[in-house]
Amino acid sequence: MKLAGRVSQVTPSITLAIAAKAKAMKADGIDVCSFSAGEPDFDTPAHIKAAAQTALESGKTKYGPAAGEPKLREAIANKLKTDNGLDYKPENVIVTNGGKHSLFNLMLALIDAGDEVIIPAPYWLSYPEMVTLAGGTSVIVTTNASTGYKITPEMLRKAITPKTKLFVLNSPSNPTGMVYSPEEIKALAEVIVEADIFVVSDEIYEKILYDGAKHLTIGSLGEKIFAKTIISNGFAKAYSMTGWRIGYLAGPAELIKATITIQSHSTSNVCTFAQYGAIAALESSQDCVQEMLQAFTKRRKVMLEALNSIPGLSCSKPDGAFYLFPDISKTGLKSLDFSSALLEEHQVAVIPGVAFGADKNIRLSYATDMETIQKGMERLEKFVKARI
Ligand code: GLU
Looking at residue 388, what is its pLDDT? Predict the structure, then answer.
C-alpha cells in the first residue's frame, strides 16, 4: 500500500510502546518493574470522579462546543489568572484531548512548510514529530549536564533564523526534570521578544516541584512576551487523570480560534461529562495535588540515592516532574541497547534517552510505588555491575 509521505517521516511513540509492552508482560504474569511512561500510579481523586459521574447521570452525554464546555473554559481562564498571573478570557482557551493534542493543534494552526521550530534537547519525544507532521522543520539545540540540560539565551539567539516561528519551552522538563529559574525565564523572554518569535510553554508538570523550586510562567513577564506566548497544559499529571484525555491551550484569540476550527473538523469536543471532572479538579481543594507531591518527593529521594550509589551511573538532581535522567555512558552501551537488555534480562522497563535526543542517558519515571522502585533499583544495580 502506498501510504502518505508523512507517515514515513515519523516513528511511533517509544514511551507509549514501552509502557504498553511492560503492561502486556505484567498481564502475562511476568514480574516487571516499569519506570517507563510518566503516568502517576494513583487513582483519580474521588471528588473528581464523582463530579464526572454526576454529569454523566444528569445527561451531559451530548455533543458540546468544539472549544470545550463554557464553564471549563472559564475555570481554566480563572486558574491561569490566579496561578500564573495571565490575563486570559474564556475565548483565549481551547479544551483539547490531552496536553499532546493541545500541542498538535498548535503546530497545525501555526506552522507552515519551511517554518522552523526551535526545540532544546533533551526534549519530549513528540515535539519534533508534531512539527514534522505539520510540515515544519525542527531545529534541535543540544544541551548537556553542564548547563543543567537547559538552553541558554545565547544558544537560543544563535539558533534563531528569519524562518524561526516558534520556540518550545518545557519547564519542569520531561525528560530531565529540570526547572528554569525565574532569572533564566526572564533572559529567554528578552530574546523571544527581540526576535519576535512565538514561544509555547508546556507547563504540564508545573505543580510537581521540589525543594522550594518556583515555576514562573514566561507569559506573565509583560505585555510584549504575553502576546507571543502560548500555554499548553492539562490535567493528566497533577490530578492523575492520564486516561481522561483533557488538556488545554491558551493564547492569542486569533490563534485559539484557528485551533477551534481545526478541532471542529477533527475530534470535536472532549468527552462532555469528563470535562465536568476537570471543572471539579480546578475548583475544589488542591490537597490531592499536595498529597501526590509528597509521595513523589519520597520516591525521588530513594531513586536518586539508589541511582547515584550504582558505580558507573551518575544522575543530577532535578527540581521538578517525576523523571530521573541518569548518564549511562560509562557502561559503554547505547541507550536503546541498554534499555532492551535491561528489560530482557531483568524485566526493568526504562525509556532509552535516544528517543529524547540524548543517547548517553536513560529516563526513569518514579510515578510508581516504592516497592517497585526498590526492587527495580536492585535489578538495575546487578545489570550495571555486570557491565563495568
Ligand atoms: N508524556 C508521558 C511520558 O513522556 C506519557 C507518554 C507520552 O505521551 O509520551 O511518558
Answer: 85
